[in-house]
Amino acid sequence: xxxxxKSLFLTSALAAAGLASLPAHGKxxxxxxxxxxxxxxxxxxxxxxxxxxxxxxxGLQTPTFDRIAREGVLFTRAFxxxxxxxxxxxxxxTGQVFSRLEESANLWSTLDAKFPVYPDLLEKAGYRIxxxxxxxxxxxLRPGGRNRNPAGPHYKDFSTFLASVPEGKPFCYWxxxxxxxxxxxxxxxxxxxxxxxxxxxxxFLPDAPEVRSDILDYYFEVxxxxxxxxxxxxxxxxxxxxxxxxxxxxxxxxxPFPRAKANVYDYGARMPxxxxxPARVPPNRVVEDFVSFPDFAPTFLEAAGLKPLxxxxxxxxxxxxxxxxxxxxxxxxxxxxxxxxxHANVRAxxxxxxxxxxxxxxxxxIRNFEPDRWPAGDPPRFGDIDNGPTKAWMMEHRDxxxxxRLFDLAxxxxxxxxxxxxxxxxxxxxNVASDTGYAKTARGLRSDLDGWMxxxxxxxxxxxxxxxxxxxxxxxxxxxxxxxxAPIPASPAKE
Length: 495
Ligand SMILES: [Ca+2]
Known about the structure:
The chain is an alpha/beta fold. The protein has 14 helices and 11 strands.
Protein backbone atom coordinates (compact mmCIF):
# COMPACT_ATOMS: atom_id res chain seq x y z
CA UNK A 1 0.00 0.00 0.00
CA UNK A 2 1.47 3.38 -0.98
CA UNK A 3 2.09 6.14 1.56
CA UNK A 4 -0.77 8.57 0.86
CA UNK A 5 -3.26 5.76 0.34
CA LYS A 6 -2.16 4.15 3.57
CA SER A 7 -2.57 7.28 5.62
CA LEU A 8 -5.95 7.97 4.04
CA PHE A 9 -7.06 4.47 4.93
CA LEU A 10 -5.65 4.79 8.40
CA THR A 11 -7.26 8.16 9.02
CA SER A 12 -10.67 6.97 7.89
CA ALA A 13 -10.35 3.72 9.81
CA LEU A 14 -9.38 5.60 12.93
CA ALA A 15 -12.12 8.15 12.45
CA ALA A 16 -14.67 5.38 11.97
CA ALA A 17 -13.59 3.92 15.27
CA GLY A 18 -13.48 7.25 17.04
CA LEU A 19 -9.74 7.00 17.48
CA ALA A 20 -8.91 10.19 15.65
CA SER A 21 -10.14 12.12 18.67
CA LEU A 22 -7.58 10.53 20.98
CA PRO A 23 -4.98 12.93 22.32
CA ALA A 24 -1.97 13.16 20.07
CA HIS A 25 0.38 13.00 23.02
CA GLY A 26 -0.63 11.53 26.29
CA LYS A 27 0.93 14.05 28.66
CA UNK A 28 -1.64 16.66 27.78
CA UNK A 29 -4.51 14.36 28.59
CA UNK A 30 -4.97 16.13 31.93
CA UNK A 31 -7.13 18.71 30.14
CA UNK A 32 -10.11 16.35 30.41
CA UNK A 33 -10.88 12.82 31.53
CA UNK A 34 -8.18 10.48 30.29
CA UNK A 35 -9.89 8.14 27.85
CA UNK A 36 -6.76 6.41 26.68
CA UNK A 37 -7.09 2.61 26.83
CA UNK A 38 -5.40 0.39 29.38
CA UNK A 39 -3.29 -2.42 28.01
CA UNK A 40 -3.02 -5.92 29.43
CA UNK A 41 -0.53 -8.07 27.57
CA UNK A 42 -0.75 -11.72 28.66
CA UNK A 43 1.94 -13.99 27.29
CA UNK A 44 2.46 -17.68 27.91
CA UNK A 45 5.81 -19.38 27.51
CA UNK A 46 6.18 -22.02 24.76
CA UNK A 47 2.65 -22.43 23.38
CA UNK A 48 2.05 -23.27 19.73
CA UNK A 49 -0.69 -21.36 17.93
CA UNK A 50 -3.10 -24.22 17.53
CA UNK A 51 -3.34 -25.04 21.23
CA UNK A 52 -6.43 -23.06 22.14
CA UNK A 53 -10.06 -24.09 21.78
CA UNK A 54 -10.76 -21.17 19.42
CA UNK A 55 -8.42 -22.77 16.85
CA UNK A 56 -10.37 -26.03 16.98
CA UNK A 57 -8.08 -28.11 19.19
CA UNK A 58 -10.07 -30.57 21.27
CA GLY A 59 -8.85 -32.04 24.52
CA LEU A 60 -7.85 -28.80 26.21
CA GLN A 61 -10.03 -26.06 27.65
CA THR A 62 -9.11 -22.42 27.11
CA PRO A 63 -12.31 -20.52 27.95
CA THR A 64 -10.47 -17.23 28.55
CA PHE A 65 -8.67 -17.25 25.24
CA ASP A 66 -11.87 -18.32 23.50
CA ARG A 67 -13.79 -15.49 25.15
CA ILE A 68 -11.23 -12.88 24.10
CA ALA A 69 -11.39 -14.25 20.56
CA ARG A 70 -15.19 -14.29 20.53
CA GLU A 71 -15.57 -10.80 21.97
CA GLY A 72 -12.68 -9.46 19.93
CA VAL A 73 -10.42 -10.65 17.13
CA LEU A 74 -8.84 -14.06 16.59
CA PHE A 75 -5.68 -13.87 14.50
CA THR A 76 -4.85 -17.02 12.52
CA ARG A 77 -1.51 -15.95 11.05
CA ALA A 78 0.50 -14.46 13.89
CA PHE A 79 4.23 -15.20 13.96
CA UNK A 80 6.89 -14.44 16.51
CA UNK A 81 10.05 -12.76 15.24
CA UNK A 82 12.26 -15.56 16.58
CA UNK A 83 11.09 -18.80 18.25
CA UNK A 84 13.18 -18.42 21.41
CA UNK A 85 12.24 -16.60 24.65
CA UNK A 86 14.69 -13.70 24.77
CA UNK A 87 14.64 -12.55 21.13
CA UNK A 88 10.89 -13.08 20.80
CA UNK A 89 10.19 -10.89 23.83
CA UNK A 90 12.77 -8.29 22.78
CA UNK A 91 11.02 -7.95 19.41
CA UNK A 92 7.67 -7.40 21.16
CA UNK A 93 9.06 -4.74 23.49
CA THR A 94 11.10 -2.81 20.93
CA GLY A 95 8.83 -3.16 17.91
CA GLN A 96 11.85 -4.30 15.95
CA VAL A 97 12.84 -7.50 14.17
CA PHE A 98 14.99 -9.61 16.50
CA SER A 99 18.09 -9.50 14.26
CA ARG A 100 18.35 -5.71 14.72
CA LEU A 101 18.72 -6.04 18.48
CA GLU A 102 22.38 -7.13 18.74
CA GLU A 103 22.86 -9.35 21.84
CA SER A 104 19.13 -9.75 22.36
CA ALA A 105 18.86 -11.74 19.12
CA ASN A 106 20.24 -14.58 21.27
CA LEU A 107 18.77 -16.45 24.20
CA TRP A 108 20.38 -15.66 27.60
CA SER A 109 21.69 -12.27 26.61
CA THR A 110 21.12 -8.61 27.38
CA LEU A 111 19.04 -5.84 25.80
CA ASP A 112 20.99 -2.66 25.26
CA ALA A 113 19.37 0.42 26.79
CA LYS A 114 19.75 2.21 23.46
CA PHE A 115 16.75 0.24 22.16
CA PRO A 116 13.57 2.04 23.32
CA VAL A 117 10.73 -0.18 24.56
CA TYR A 118 7.02 0.60 24.49
CA PRO A 119 6.38 0.35 28.26
CA ASP A 120 8.95 3.10 28.90
CA LEU A 121 7.42 5.28 26.18
CA LEU A 122 3.95 4.81 27.66
CA GLU A 123 5.25 5.56 31.15
CA LYS A 124 6.68 8.85 29.88
CA ALA A 125 3.27 9.61 28.39
CA GLY A 126 1.57 9.20 31.76
CA TYR A 127 0.80 5.49 31.95
CA ARG A 128 1.37 3.42 35.07
CA ILE A 129 3.33 0.36 33.91
CA UNK A 130 3.94 -2.97 35.61
CA UNK A 131 4.97 -6.57 35.17
CA UNK A 132 4.16 -9.83 36.89
CA UNK A 133 6.14 -12.96 36.10
CA UNK A 134 8.34 -13.35 33.05
CA UNK A 135 9.03 -10.18 31.07
CA UNK A 136 12.08 -9.78 28.85
CA UNK A 137 13.89 -13.00 29.75
CA UNK A 138 16.06 -14.97 30.20
CA UNK A 139 19.25 -12.96 30.51
CA UNK A 140 20.98 -10.28 32.53
CA LEU A 141 19.96 -6.68 32.00
CA ARG A 142 22.90 -4.98 33.69
CA PRO A 143 25.43 -5.32 30.85
CA GLY A 144 22.89 -3.56 28.60
CA GLY A 145 22.71 -0.61 30.99
CA ARG A 146 19.21 -1.24 32.32
CA ASN A 147 18.16 -1.24 35.93
CA ARG A 148 14.74 -2.82 35.53
CA ASN A 149 12.98 -5.23 33.25
CA PRO A 150 11.96 -3.54 29.97
CA ALA A 151 8.44 -4.94 30.46
CA GLY A 152 8.11 -2.78 33.59
CA PRO A 153 8.70 -2.84 37.33
CA HIS A 154 7.74 -6.08 39.04
CA TYR A 155 4.48 -6.50 40.98
CA LYS A 156 3.50 -9.58 42.95
CA ASP A 157 0.26 -9.99 41.05
CA PHE A 158 -2.35 -8.08 39.08
CA SER A 159 -4.43 -6.98 42.07
CA THR A 160 -1.36 -5.42 43.73
CA PHE A 161 -0.56 -3.63 40.51
CA LEU A 162 -4.13 -2.47 39.95
CA ALA A 163 -4.30 -1.10 43.49
CA SER A 164 -1.19 0.98 42.75
CA VAL A 165 -2.70 2.73 39.71
CA PRO A 166 -3.76 6.30 40.60
CA GLU A 167 -7.41 7.12 39.93
CA GLY A 168 -7.97 8.22 36.35
CA LYS A 169 -4.55 7.13 35.13
CA PRO A 170 -4.28 4.58 32.30
CA PHE A 171 -2.07 1.56 32.77
CA CYS A 172 -0.04 -0.91 30.77
CA TYR A 173 0.50 -4.29 32.38
CA TRP A 174 2.46 -7.33 31.26
CA UNK A 175 1.53 -10.72 32.63
CA UNK A 176 4.19 -13.30 31.71
CA UNK A 177 3.39 -16.84 32.77
CA UNK A 178 6.11 -19.50 32.78
CA UNK A 179 3.50 -22.04 31.61
CA UNK A 180 3.70 -24.22 29.56
CA UNK A 181 7.51 -24.08 29.70
CA UNK A 182 9.17 -27.30 30.87
CA UNK A 183 9.67 -29.07 33.20
CA UNK A 184 6.21 -30.56 33.77
CA UNK A 185 4.92 -32.58 36.67
CA UNK A 186 5.07 -35.98 35.00
CA UNK A 187 1.56 -37.36 34.51
CA UNK A 188 -0.20 -34.13 35.57
CA UNK A 189 -2.35 -34.17 32.42
CA UNK A 190 -3.63 -37.68 33.07
CA UNK A 191 -4.02 -36.95 36.79
CA UNK A 192 -6.21 -33.95 35.96
CA UNK A 193 -8.74 -36.28 34.36
CA UNK A 194 -7.61 -36.20 30.75
CA UNK A 195 -7.16 -39.38 28.75
CA UNK A 196 -4.51 -40.25 26.19
CA UNK A 197 -7.08 -39.91 23.41
CA UNK A 198 -7.47 -36.21 24.30
CA UNK A 199 -3.98 -35.50 22.97
CA UNK A 200 -3.56 -34.60 19.31
CA UNK A 201 -0.16 -35.76 18.10
CA UNK A 202 1.15 -33.74 15.16
CA UNK A 203 2.53 -36.05 12.46
CA PHE A 204 6.13 -34.92 12.97
CA LEU A 205 6.06 -36.58 16.41
CA PRO A 206 5.71 -40.34 17.01
CA ASP A 207 2.30 -41.42 18.24
CA ALA A 208 3.38 -43.26 21.39
CA PRO A 209 1.61 -43.30 24.78
CA GLU A 210 4.63 -41.52 26.36
CA VAL A 211 4.34 -38.73 23.80
CA ARG A 212 0.58 -38.44 24.31
CA SER A 213 1.01 -38.20 28.07
CA ASP A 214 3.71 -35.55 27.61
CA ILE A 215 1.34 -33.54 25.40
CA LEU A 216 -1.35 -33.80 28.09
CA ASP A 217 1.10 -32.42 30.66
CA TYR A 218 1.68 -29.52 28.27
CA TYR A 219 -2.10 -29.04 27.85
CA PHE A 220 -2.44 -28.96 31.64
CA GLU A 221 -0.13 -25.94 31.82
CA VAL A 222 -1.77 -24.20 28.86
CA UNK A 223 -5.02 -24.46 30.82
CA UNK A 224 -3.40 -23.05 33.97
CA UNK A 225 -2.22 -19.99 32.04
CA UNK A 226 -5.74 -19.59 30.69
CA UNK A 227 -7.23 -19.65 34.19
CA UNK A 228 -4.76 -17.03 35.39
CA UNK A 229 -5.66 -14.66 32.59
CA UNK A 230 -9.30 -15.37 33.42
CA UNK A 231 -8.64 -14.08 36.94
CA UNK A 232 -7.19 -10.88 35.51
CA UNK A 233 -10.29 -10.36 33.35
CA UNK A 234 -12.53 -10.82 36.37
CA UNK A 235 -10.59 -8.19 38.31
CA UNK A 236 -10.77 -5.77 35.38
CA UNK A 237 -14.50 -6.36 35.18
CA UNK A 238 -14.95 -5.80 38.90
CA UNK A 239 -13.01 -2.54 38.66
CA UNK A 240 -15.20 -1.43 35.75
CA UNK A 241 -12.17 -1.27 33.50
CA UNK A 242 -12.67 -4.24 31.23
CA UNK A 243 -14.14 -2.55 28.20
CA UNK A 244 -11.56 0.18 27.70
CA UNK A 245 -8.69 -2.24 28.17
CA UNK A 246 -6.88 -3.77 25.23
CA UNK A 247 -6.40 -7.37 26.31
CA UNK A 248 -3.91 -9.36 24.26
CA UNK A 249 -3.36 -13.06 24.80
CA UNK A 250 -0.49 -14.80 23.05
CA UNK A 251 2.77 -16.72 23.60
CA UNK A 252 6.47 -16.18 22.87
CA UNK A 253 7.38 -19.31 20.87
CA UNK A 254 6.01 -22.76 20.18
CA UNK A 255 5.66 -25.92 22.26
CA PRO A 256 8.85 -27.36 23.84
CA PHE A 257 8.88 -30.50 21.72
CA PRO A 258 11.19 -31.75 18.96
CA ARG A 259 10.89 -29.81 15.65
CA ALA A 260 8.72 -27.18 17.39
CA LYS A 261 10.27 -24.61 19.79
CA ALA A 262 13.50 -23.03 18.48
CA ASN A 263 12.46 -23.91 14.92
CA VAL A 264 10.86 -21.69 12.28
CA TYR A 265 8.30 -24.35 11.34
CA ASP A 266 4.73 -23.47 12.34
CA TYR A 267 4.82 -25.36 15.64
CA GLY A 268 7.82 -23.25 16.61
CA ALA A 269 6.98 -19.80 15.28
CA ARG A 270 3.23 -19.52 14.65
CA MET A 271 1.53 -18.06 17.69
CA PRO A 272 -1.89 -18.02 19.29
CA UNK A 273 -3.23 -14.46 19.29
CA UNK A 274 -6.52 -12.97 20.40
CA UNK A 275 -7.21 -9.27 21.11
CA UNK A 276 -10.23 -7.79 22.88
CA UNK A 277 -11.09 -4.10 23.21
CA PRO A 278 -14.86 -3.60 23.12
CA ALA A 279 -14.60 0.19 23.27
CA ARG A 280 -13.11 0.26 19.77
CA VAL A 281 -12.81 -3.23 18.31
CA PRO A 282 -15.83 -4.89 16.64
CA PRO A 283 -16.22 -8.41 18.09
CA ASN A 284 -16.44 -11.93 16.76
CA ARG A 285 -13.95 -11.63 13.92
CA VAL A 286 -11.31 -13.93 12.52
CA VAL A 287 -8.52 -12.02 10.81
CA GLU A 288 -6.25 -13.87 8.40
CA ASP A 289 -3.70 -11.14 7.78
CA PHE A 290 -0.12 -12.05 8.60
CA VAL A 291 1.00 -10.26 11.74
CA SER A 292 4.38 -10.29 13.39
CA PHE A 293 5.45 -9.65 16.97
CA PRO A 294 7.22 -6.33 16.24
CA ASP A 295 3.70 -5.09 15.35
CA PHE A 296 2.63 -4.97 19.01
CA ALA A 297 4.69 -1.96 20.13
CA PRO A 298 3.47 0.38 17.35
CA THR A 299 -0.08 -0.83 18.02
CA PHE A 300 0.05 0.04 21.73
CA LEU A 301 1.71 3.39 21.11
CA GLU A 302 -0.82 4.36 18.49
CA ALA A 303 -3.74 3.26 20.66
CA ALA A 304 -2.36 5.58 23.34
CA GLY A 305 -2.20 8.46 20.88
CA LEU A 306 1.57 8.27 20.43
CA LYS A 307 3.57 7.94 17.26
CA PRO A 308 5.58 4.74 16.75
CA LEU A 309 9.33 5.41 16.57
CA UNK A 310 10.98 5.44 13.14
CA UNK A 311 13.29 2.54 14.06
CA UNK A 312 10.32 0.28 14.78
CA UNK A 313 10.02 -2.18 11.91
CA UNK A 314 6.60 -3.41 13.07
CA UNK A 315 3.36 -1.99 11.70
CA UNK A 316 0.44 -1.05 13.91
CA UNK A 317 -2.40 -3.58 14.05
CA UNK A 318 -4.89 -0.84 14.81
CA UNK A 319 -6.33 -0.65 11.27
CA UNK A 320 -7.03 -4.40 11.44
CA UNK A 321 -8.44 -4.18 14.95
CA UNK A 322 -10.87 -1.32 14.35
CA UNK A 323 -12.05 -2.72 11.03
CA UNK A 324 -15.44 -4.40 10.90
CA UNK A 325 -14.13 -6.96 8.46
CA UNK A 326 -12.93 -10.53 8.82
CA UNK A 327 -10.61 -12.55 6.60
CA UNK A 328 -7.75 -10.83 4.79
CA UNK A 329 -8.11 -7.10 5.41
CA UNK A 330 -4.82 -5.60 4.22
CA UNK A 331 -3.68 -7.41 1.10
CA UNK A 332 -0.11 -6.30 1.78
CA UNK A 333 -0.05 -8.43 4.91
CA UNK A 334 0.53 -11.64 2.96
CA UNK A 335 3.72 -12.97 4.60
CA UNK A 336 5.78 -13.16 7.75
CA UNK A 337 9.54 -13.24 8.25
CA UNK A 338 11.06 -15.35 10.98
CA UNK A 339 14.59 -16.22 12.04
CA UNK A 340 16.87 -17.34 14.78
CA UNK A 341 20.43 -17.08 15.94
CA UNK A 342 21.74 -18.76 19.09
CA HIS A 343 19.25 -20.52 21.32
CA ALA A 344 20.99 -22.53 24.07
CA ASN A 345 24.75 -22.92 24.52
CA VAL A 346 24.79 -26.36 22.90
CA ARG A 347 27.41 -26.31 20.15
CA ALA A 348 31.17 -26.41 20.39
CA UNK A 349 32.46 -22.83 20.55
CA UNK A 350 29.10 -21.51 21.77
CA UNK A 351 27.90 -21.26 18.17
CA UNK A 352 24.32 -20.62 17.17
CA UNK A 353 22.25 -22.03 14.34
CA UNK A 354 21.39 -19.06 12.12
CA UNK A 355 18.18 -19.21 10.09
CA UNK A 356 16.04 -16.72 8.20
CA UNK A 357 12.71 -17.68 6.68
CA UNK A 358 9.66 -16.31 4.90
CA UNK A 359 6.20 -17.80 5.38
CA UNK A 360 3.34 -17.14 2.95
CA UNK A 361 -0.06 -18.83 2.72
CA UNK A 362 1.30 -21.43 0.37
CA UNK A 363 4.99 -21.81 1.19
CA UNK A 364 7.61 -21.78 3.90
CA UNK A 365 11.07 -20.97 2.56
CA ILE A 366 14.01 -21.41 4.94
CA ARG A 367 17.67 -20.43 4.65
CA ASN A 368 20.07 -22.27 6.97
CA PHE A 369 23.27 -20.23 6.95
CA GLU A 370 25.46 -22.87 8.60
CA PRO A 371 24.22 -26.25 7.37
CA ASP A 372 27.32 -28.02 8.73
CA ARG A 373 26.15 -27.29 12.28
CA TRP A 374 23.56 -29.33 14.17
CA PRO A 375 20.19 -27.49 14.23
CA ALA A 376 19.14 -29.15 17.50
CA GLY A 377 22.59 -28.76 19.09
CA ASP A 378 25.60 -31.05 19.05
CA PRO A 379 25.04 -34.75 19.71
CA PRO A 380 24.65 -36.55 21.98
CA ARG A 381 22.70 -33.90 23.97
CA PHE A 382 20.85 -32.12 21.16
CA GLY A 383 20.37 -29.38 23.73
CA ASP A 384 18.26 -26.98 21.66
CA ILE A 385 15.44 -29.47 22.22
CA ASP A 386 14.17 -29.21 25.80
CA ASN A 387 14.61 -32.38 27.82
CA GLY A 388 11.42 -34.29 28.48
CA PRO A 389 9.64 -37.59 27.86
CA THR A 390 9.07 -37.01 24.12
CA LYS A 391 12.71 -36.20 23.43
CA ALA A 392 13.87 -39.13 25.57
CA TRP A 393 11.47 -41.52 23.83
CA MET A 394 12.56 -40.41 20.36
CA MET A 395 16.25 -40.78 21.25
CA GLU A 396 15.68 -44.21 22.67
CA HIS A 397 13.64 -45.37 19.66
CA ARG A 398 15.58 -43.50 17.00
CA ASP A 399 16.34 -46.66 14.99
CA UNK A 400 12.80 -48.05 15.05
CA UNK A 401 11.02 -48.17 11.71
CA UNK A 402 8.68 -45.21 11.50
CA UNK A 403 10.63 -43.24 14.11
CA UNK A 404 13.89 -42.93 12.20
CA ARG A 405 12.53 -40.41 9.72
CA LEU A 406 10.91 -38.31 12.46
CA PHE A 407 14.12 -38.44 14.47
CA ASP A 408 16.11 -37.20 11.48
CA LEU A 409 13.63 -34.38 10.81
CA ALA A 410 13.93 -33.10 14.39
CA UNK A 411 17.49 -33.97 15.39
CA UNK A 412 19.41 -34.30 12.10
CA UNK A 413 21.30 -31.82 9.98
CA UNK A 414 19.45 -29.82 7.37
CA UNK A 415 20.39 -28.53 3.93
CA UNK A 416 21.14 -24.85 3.26
CA UNK A 417 17.67 -24.34 1.86
CA UNK A 418 14.30 -25.79 2.75
CA UNK A 419 11.02 -25.22 0.95
CA UNK A 420 7.67 -26.62 1.99
CA UNK A 421 4.50 -26.61 -0.10
CA UNK A 422 1.88 -26.00 2.57
CA UNK A 423 -0.99 -26.84 0.24
CA UNK A 424 0.18 -30.46 0.26
CA UNK A 425 2.37 -30.53 3.32
CA UNK A 426 0.88 -28.42 6.13
CA UNK A 427 3.21 -29.93 8.75
CA UNK A 428 6.30 -29.00 6.74
CA UNK A 429 7.88 -32.43 6.55
CA UNK A 430 8.85 -32.81 2.86
CA ASN A 431 11.56 -30.45 1.67
CA VAL A 432 11.05 -29.63 -2.02
CA ALA A 433 13.80 -26.99 -2.27
CA SER A 434 15.76 -29.01 -4.84
CA ASP A 435 12.73 -30.28 -6.83
CA THR A 436 12.93 -28.77 -10.31
CA GLY A 437 9.16 -28.18 -10.27
CA TYR A 438 9.67 -25.66 -7.48
CA ALA A 439 12.72 -23.88 -8.89
CA LYS A 440 10.78 -20.75 -9.81
CA THR A 441 9.04 -20.55 -6.43
CA ALA A 442 12.32 -21.04 -4.60
CA ARG A 443 13.96 -18.33 -6.69
CA GLY A 444 11.18 -15.86 -5.94
CA LEU A 445 11.17 -16.49 -2.20
CA ARG A 446 14.97 -16.48 -2.01
CA SER A 447 15.08 -13.05 -3.58
CA ASP A 448 12.19 -11.82 -1.42
CA LEU A 449 14.00 -12.92 1.74
CA ASP A 450 17.23 -11.27 0.57
CA GLY A 451 15.39 -8.03 -0.11
CA TRP A 452 13.73 -8.04 3.30
CA MET A 453 17.00 -8.71 5.13
CA UNK A 454 18.59 -5.72 3.39
CA UNK A 455 15.60 -3.48 4.09
CA UNK A 456 15.59 -4.19 7.80
CA UNK A 457 19.41 -3.94 7.94
CA UNK A 458 19.93 -7.49 9.16
CA UNK A 459 23.66 -7.93 9.87
CA UNK A 460 23.52 -11.25 8.01
CA UNK A 461 22.64 -9.42 4.80
CA UNK A 462 25.95 -7.55 5.02
CA UNK A 463 28.33 -10.39 5.90
CA UNK A 464 28.28 -9.51 9.61
CA UNK A 465 26.37 -12.50 10.92
CA UNK A 466 29.31 -13.86 12.91
CA UNK A 467 28.75 -11.21 15.57
CA UNK A 468 25.83 -13.24 16.95
CA UNK A 469 28.23 -16.10 17.73
CA UNK A 470 30.59 -13.78 19.60
CA UNK A 471 28.11 -12.31 22.05
CA UNK A 472 28.47 -13.91 25.49
CA UNK A 473 25.98 -16.44 26.79
CA UNK A 474 25.02 -14.95 30.14
CA UNK A 475 23.31 -17.87 31.82
CA UNK A 476 24.21 -17.81 35.52
CA UNK A 477 27.44 -19.63 36.18
CA UNK A 478 28.54 -19.90 32.56
CA UNK A 479 30.84 -17.80 30.38
CA UNK A 480 30.00 -14.71 32.32
CA UNK A 481 32.00 -11.70 33.26
CA UNK A 482 32.43 -11.39 37.05
CA UNK A 483 29.45 -9.77 38.72
CA UNK A 484 29.68 -7.07 41.33
CA UNK A 485 26.22 -7.88 42.55
CA ALA A 486 23.44 -10.31 41.79
CA PRO A 487 22.00 -10.18 38.28
CA ILE A 488 18.69 -8.42 37.82
CA PRO A 489 16.29 -11.31 37.68
CA ALA A 490 14.65 -11.38 34.31
CA SER A 491 12.11 -13.95 35.37
CA PRO A 492 11.20 -16.18 38.26
CA ALA A 493 12.65 -19.67 38.10
CA LYS A 494 10.28 -22.28 36.79
CA GLU A 495 8.82 -24.17 39.71
CA1 LIG B 1 9.48 -19.37 25.55
